[in-house]
């Protein structure tokens, strides 16, 4: 049997109450998702992500370091008043100066999850669920979850203490074990940066004071400032599962901290003067479904409170349960196991605040109810602390309930019903004994009845060509057809159709007419080709069809498309035509019907065109087999593809590109090549101008220097675009 392990934190009352008349004399409060805790000599902010830094300014009455060296104006991490002088001389802020680094994280398997740096990283969703102020302590509880692992972290400042403790409970809320769990807390101890009279340095002397394994399970990493003015920060615990490190900065792997597998980390050594972090990590291992574990660590802000703070984190007790899943009437034995060697331990067991057992580390019961609160208190001294201490934990009992269910169902004969993995085909009552998801015995009853199928036959006769619709389908052929339906009780129903065919009679008449004529048949005039049926009723009650197959004799027709050159004559069907148009001649064809011959005559014009052609020196145009390279007017006569005379008059001129412009605004030679697509480049190949409006000797609105510039001219030549390249000199007067 694998017992359920519940880890209990021993809460040690080793402090004195100073200057407190009532708990409400402190200003502990929840504000915009931030918890601000104020005790005698310590103030702590728990941010919305569970790290020790507020995302907003602290309320009035708190002591943030204000606008000190590189500090955020009014935000609070945690500060302390070791001098106990009513906050005249106090140290910190430990977290907020410089680049802040403080937060917690989890390693689950191969994945790391962290909440750090004023929620700049917030992998684990959660929020503050409770803030409490009592004469004994000021506390805030943050709760979140990641991948089925619930995290509950209570941070509290004992009255009169110059330290604060965070108690963490992890619970597996899934139905499967969660393996390889590690938890960490990481902080950069910058307590000397903004404290008046301190070293104003981000560097601290970081030391590993205690490291496991040791007899008391103590771990402690501490940081002190260079001038030794009392700015102390310790991070530690009394738990054999814990390790502390120094080194690194933005440490994000709880497993690396515990195993010290990062080269920047060290788990030993003292007085390392560095701007590095100190960390604590806990190896939790595996949590079974519904299993919880609890551990605690302390931020110690005065070296004189060191041992008190470590004792306050002492995980003194585990509770093992003999059964993980509890059903009504089950007997369960709970065993309290001390994690450290205790002297004269005294135990007290309660259910719902009623004492149910004393003087024994075991408690057995068979009368637990769902949501009962079982608690165990141990009072003892240990070899690690001579003071008698006590601690209490609570367990919320989950008692599963058996299920009793009855299912009534019916099946058609021949079918089967699967119930609890067994198939049943006969009517009857069947009982299955099973274990439900809560692990409790349950009874499921099946009352099974049998429904019978039905059958029917329908006989129908139809005339050939007709159809009969049966069960949604249409039938035209004789035969026997069976449809499988579902009857009123949901079983198969066989409906059979016996279909016979009655024959009709027919006669056929074939005739033809010219299109446009009329043919009379059975009292009806027909003008279109087709098969026409006159329906009668014969002796068996079916249609008697008289069929007319009428065809049309078509007139013949033809269309001639022709053209002639303007001034000529075109002969068609013995007629001469000299005008464009459509002409129709009517004849009688070989089948005795009209024949229409159509002439569509088009007049072709004599082609005449004048064109102006631009070219540059060295270009030429080829027109009608002639090559022209000089300026002038040229007339060419040729035949079109239709055979008509055509005339083209070409006006050729050669463009001359100036090699110099003087853009001085006098209106003479100010613009280069207006009307053509031109690009202008300087000697370095920089494009100064591109466009059709001509270049005015400027680049970006400013005149260019007197120099020679390269141009490219793009122009249309025949059916292609050609370029002309050259140089132009910008001369200024």
Low-confidence parts: 1-23, 67-71
Whole-Å distance between the termini?
Answer: 108 Å
Mean pLDDT: 83
Q: Kindly estimate the percentage of residues that lie in beta strands according to DSSP.
A: over 45%
Q: Which fold name fills CATH's third level, the topology of the largest domain? A: Beta-galactosidase, Chain A, domain 5
Q: Using the coordinates above, name the CATH class of the largest domain.
A: Mainly Beta
**CATH homolog superfamily of the largest domain:** Glycoside hydrolase, family 65, N-terminal domain
Strand order of the largest sheet: 9-10-11-12-21-16-15-14-19
Describe the largest sheet. Answer: 9 strands, antiparallel
Q: Please identify the structural class as seen in this structure.
A: mainly beta
Structural domain tally: 8
Protein name: Gliding motility-associated C-terminal domain-containing protein
Keywords: Signal
Q: How would you characterize this protein structure?
A:
This is Gliding motility-associated C-terminal domain-containing protein. With 733 residues, the protein is an all-beta fold. The protein folds into 8 domains: 4-23 and 101-312, Glycoside hydrolase, family 65, N-terminal domain (Beta-galactosidase, Chain A, domain 5, Distorted Sandwich); 320-396, Immunoglobulin-like, CATH 2.60.40; 404-451, no CATH class; 454-502, no CATH class; 505-553, no CATH class; 556-604, no CATH class; 607-655, no CATH class; 660-730, no CATH class. It has a 9-stranded antiparallel beta sheet with strand order 9-10-11-12-21-16-15-14-19, with helices on one face. It has a 7-stranded antiparallel beta sheet with strand order 8-7-6-13-20-17-18. A hairpin with a 5-residue loop joins strand 52 and strand 53 (645-655). The longest helix has 7 residues, at 306-312. The radius of gyration is 52 Å and the shape is flat. Residues 1-23 and 67-71 have low confidence and may be disordered.
